[in-house]
Amino acid sequence: MRIALLTGGGDSPATNAAIRAVVKKAQQDGHEVMGVRRGWAGMIEDEMDVLDRHAVSGILPRGGTILGTSRTNPFKQDGGAEAIRATVRGRKIDAIVAIGGDDTLGVAHKLNGLEPPIPAVGIPQTIDNDLDKTDFAIGFDTAVSIATDALDKLHTTAESHHRIMVLEVMGRDAGHVALTAGLAGGADIILVPEKPFDVEAMCDRIQKRRDIGKTFSLVVVAEGATPVGGEQISKDQATDQFGHVILGGIGEYIGRRIHEHCGLETRVTNLGHLQRGGMPTAFDRLLGTRLGVAAVELVEAGRFDAMVAMQGNRIVPVPLGDALQSVKPVDPELLDMADIFY
Ligand code: F6P
């Protein structure tokens, strides 16, 4: 068999671990892997090279994706899907393995739905961890470690200066990084898109801490969080091919409001793309490795329009349509638990 392998959307640490696993498993089973450049753009433009064991040697600990990525949506380009079909036919590709989040895997799902279908399977990869039907997506654990480390560092300087420190992290539609890192890093206030926040309630909590002698507080906020009755804050209203605006600025907004409302000195850090770079954790490397092997097994079994997922400690196949039906929200129990720790 010949498999086309691509990575799309925002990159994540340990994507290379999944690429390596797909190539090694496929090669062991006698298949050929074509590494597609720049996500779906490379399928449209027929840009790919053979990926063999040598090409993936040494990439396990490397951040980013050796294939490159893009936010190209073939269904928003004239003739995009037809161009992909031409590439598949021309290159004699039997199946596509797509690594990415809801946008990238949404394209894979649509290709499977064409007549005749273009067979594709998906591997979940997004630091946002908002794909449904999988407990973990590749890159999330590393992003949480980076955000936790940032909170640890902000803690000591917040304490020295008796300040309110606000840390903005990624998380467009769900606050998994904010909540998990917030709990692991001992944040006093955790704000996520799933639960609009109220500035007065935030000031009350900060005041309660001051009443017991805690002269500093840490706030962690997901970029997609909103004030009650308010909207997401974006840097630019321009949308990408999947209809998303570039979010950013909620941390500054909160810093300003806390200063105005509680009269306290505030500093804001936006962790930004630091969360998406660098060495993956051992957990993410293993996850990428297991999902990569399982994706090749799905192709071998002819189970297309499916995604490999981690449920509990098991890797299982799930229909792509199910994984894409809705954004996976944060665990409400964990969110309630966050209210204990301030
Ligand atoms: O991949 C998802 C994500 O990390 C979102 O949390 C964030 O909004 C977006 O990517 C930013 O991506 P970029 O700046 O690379 O377009």
Structure in words:
It is a single chain. A 7-stranded mixed sheet has the order 3-2-1-4-5-12-13, sandwiched between helices. The chain is elongated. It has 11 helices and 13 strands. The chain has 2 domains: 2-138 and 280-323, Rossmann fold (3-Layer(aba) Sandwich), CATH 3.40.50; 143-276, Phosphofructokinase domain (Rossmann fold, 3-Layer(aba) Sandwich), CATH 3.40.50.460. By secondary structure, it is α/β, with parallel strands linked by helices. Helix 1 packs across helix 9, helix 5 (140-161) packs across helix 6 (176-184) and helix 7 crosses helix 8. It starts with a strand and ends in a 5-residue tail after the last helix. The chain has helices spanning 15-28, 40-44, 80-90, 102-112, 140-161, 176-184, 199-211, 250-262, 282-301, 320-324, 332-337; strands at residues 2-7, 32-36, 48-51, 95-100, 120-124, 164-169, 189-191, 217-222, 234-239, 245-247, 266-270, 306-311, 314-319. It binds 6-O-phosphono-beta-D-fructofuranose.
Give structural attributes.
342 residues; alpha/beta; Rossmann fold; 2 domains; 7-stranded mixed beta sheet; 4-stranded parallel beta sheet; elongated; binds 6-O-phosphono-beta-D-fructofuranose
Helical/strand content category: alpha/beta
Beta-strand portion reads 15-25%
Stated plainly, the CATH topology of the largest domain is called: Rossmann fold
Mean model confidence by pLDDT: 97
Report low-confidence residues grouped into runs of 5 or more. Answer: none
- The level 1 CATH classification of the largest domain is Alpha Beta
The number of distinct β-strands equals 13
Query: What's the gyration radius in Å?
Result: 21 Å
Give the count of helical stretches: 11
State the share of residues found in helices, binned by percent: 25-40%
Q: In which order are the strands of the major sheet placed?
A: 3-2-1-4-5-12-13
Supply the number of structural domains.
2
Envelope shape: elongated
How would you characterize the largest beta sheet? 7 strands, mixed
N-to-C SSE string, H for helix and E for strand: EHEHEHEHEHEHEHEEEHEHEEHH
N-to-C CA distance: 56 Å
